[in-house]
Amino acid sequence: MQFHIPYHVYTEKFSKKRLALYHALYDSIVSGVLEAGTRLPSSRELAAMYDVSRGTVSQVYDMLSSEGYITGGVGKGTFVSFQPPKHRTGESPGRSEYLLADWGQRIHELQGWKEEEASNVQSNEKQTINFGAWGSETEFPDKEWHRFLYAESRQLAEGNGLRSRSRISTLGDDGLRESIAQYVRRARGIAVDAQQIAVFNGSMQALALTAQLFINPGERVVVENPGYGGALRAFQALGGICLHAPVDSEGIIPEDWDAKLLFVTPNRQFPTGAVLSLERRHELLAWASRHNALIIEDDYDSEFRHRGKSLEPLKVLDREERVIYVGSFSNTLLSHVRIGYAVLPASLVRLYARAKALFDPHPCNLLEQRALAAWMQSGEYERHLRRMKRVHGKKFKLLREQLDSRLSGLFNWVEGDAGLNLFGWWRGSAEDYVKYRQACLESGICWPETSVQKEDWGSIRYGAYFRFPHLTEEQIIYGVRKMEEIWTSLEGISTS
Amino acid sequence: MQFHIPYHVYTEKFSKKRLALYHALYDSIVSGVLEAGTRLPSSRELAAMYDVSRGTVSQVYDMLSSEGYITGGVGKGTFVSFQPPKHRTGESPGRSEYLLADWGQRIHELQGWKEEEASNVQSNEKQTINFGAWGSETEFPDKEWHRFLYAESRQLAEGNGLRSRSRISTLGDDGLRESIAQYVRRARGIAVDAQQIAVFNGSMQALALTAQLFINPGERVVVENPGYGGALRAFQALGGICLHAPVDSEGIIPEDWDAKLLFVTPNRQFPTGAVLSLERRHELLAWASRHNALIIEDDYDSEFRHRGKSLEPLKVLDREERVIYVGSFSNTLLSHVRIGYAVLPASLVRLYARAKALFDPHPCNLLEQRALAAWMQSGEYERHLRRMKRVHGKKFKLLREQLDSRLSGLFNWVEGDAGLNLFGWWRGSAEDYVKYRQACLESGICWPETSVQKEDWGSIRYGAYFRFPHLTEEQIIYGVRKMEEIWTSLEGISTS
What we know:
homodimer; alpha/beta; Arc Repressor Mutant, subunit A; Aspartate Aminotransferase, domain 1; four-stranded antiparallel sheet
């Protein structure tokens, strides 16, 4: 039985074993360390644990029992029967401040954390529509996925787990690395060997490790504005200075930045949805070449192009190994499965393996990695993608129509033909936006937003984006209609 | 169909769409980006993707087909039929050096990485005994574990996953945090609330994030010598200066170090197995108090005490919130499941959540976390532990007897009554050790080792440790006998 009380501390205070044992048990129960209902060891077991006689234990148990702290009987076991008001929570009032390192101090001071991010889910309540929730489980083929999951789970347990099948390394299951390599070659046209694929716990780990490998405090990094907050925080945590590059309908506007790294979402700008023109892609690569800079290309939802054309990823055009291409399965698997990846220059693979090994020497979701690899190899994952594309494409069209016809007075919708969200710039004043958002929130409708300072400084431009894969068509229609209703009910919202 | 060729790059070079399409396909096939066997889109699909006529696609397909690069027929689909010698691996000869940050440069230069660590497994070959392999699957209750895994997997998929059941956060599934809190209260006597439990991807992540939160380059950290290489690397990667504290039969020898952090394994010193005396425990806490220092207490295998007594973890004696207690399930679950945890001071919980969120905003093994929580709540996990304790205790005794009776001439075995390995100091010269290890290796026997410089400098003292949970009793006996045989067959090995 796993059981521990601080008996040895009490033997220092009490010369008699009986008293030491009594007080060790008493204090553990009264402080709540041993909770009500906890089964205590038998007198034989406890005697052996602390090298006391069984008689001593029986005496102590009798004392505690007569005082009402424990109960029990012959053949029934002995249990704690006292419940103190509340656990000690570990706050120690006299404790001096912890001396944080610079990194710790920076993340302590950084703003904009979503502390409860993981609970950002669509509620089951009918009248609540969260356009910011993640996940796309509404049409996920559970049974198919579970078939692969169960098969791989048995494989891992049976063959004594790790001996069998493909080799694994810090950078992921080799079978999955091969499947991803095949996929990015075929679907994105990237010339890559499986050894250049690094599997991460979601794309954020790829960004954070890349930042840590390349950014010293005070060095400059270009980010899109508006852009992805996660990347921004990763650079700021390292003391990097972020240059906020404006974005228009063709994506990020290239400049001759003095910087060491660029984070960019060329294939569908996050969150506006703009597609970076081919000309600008070449400009970014030329910039990187001139400044000996690195580019992180985050291709977070390229799977969902709803119309024909697509442009070459930067990684395809890159002739100097300056691009780290980052992808993710967060939009195509169950949302609790966190698998992302990066396409690395061959000469950096070992360095990334070491960087990851400091945190996760072994893949921490090997089972799901293998299930995904088997699904991809079977060809059924590709069918799943095609089906999701149809399903999402239909909802995309519906949401687009609804927003265009009902809310164009409030937002300028950005044109786009891909992705899992739609973006619009607020047309009115900042004050009106805050008022409108609050009214919607009170009616159970919410969405994620972004804000940029206008050139004339002091004035803020708001943008909102609407994610839909987790919503049914009825929920989409209900949500947008409700937003329209609230608009007409609010007086004085300007429609510039 | 997910498919991409760099068509738009080729339209810049070729004025005719037909030629652009031909060369885009040709180059993709010849470079190996489109592999032999890849199914190409139908002419209708490809025409839609790149806004060309179906006739143009048919012409291009006919050209490539007549040249032997693709094959196909009516109703059969079109496939790539050419296999180039080798993929371009991404090495770009003219590429200048990447400019690493200090952190990146340090891990690039650090020695002692086990690049293939994850493949450190016991081979299926009968004559090969790896005393260093991880895992303890020989007696793992697969079926019981899978019952919980499957049930939780269905829960996650059915209830639209994340809406249902307990809340999750960056620091883990709340149900698991509660189960771990109950466990450490009962089994280790630590007064803790579930909110102070942080679940990590194995204990290494807890060490690495703690190091990063508290250690600046040039700051001093105390580590045990011999000790855990993973912790050493985590501190060195941050530019920390490691003070190597000697260890004797009572564990680390306290001194008045000028340092900010101490990493220690008091409950079973790694790798020697020494148990830190209660007196020294108090000395370490007094030292931390004087220097306003933090202590990481790594309690990596306290579950497996084979005889009675155990001493209070530092965390129990800690009155000033200076101890971060780290534990792991690596020795009690299937070895590919990576779940570790830390008991944090309440005032540091938010900071750790932010630190982890930079890398993994969402738990990356939620399914396994929930399965473990359910297993622990059912009471069956505790039964599994009791059973494993018996199984491992028996093997421990066997290995101890075998080593004592057969190899005491070669090693001084360190006394111990707990854990999953046995440790011995080599009695002879360093040269003899190297010779003996090599001979054993050639006969298929290997073990992990440690080495310390002796005081007189220049002379090295070797130690070896023998892990057993993954081995059968027959393998243990075979391995030690073989080592004895090799000893007697080698001439001139001294037995001081």
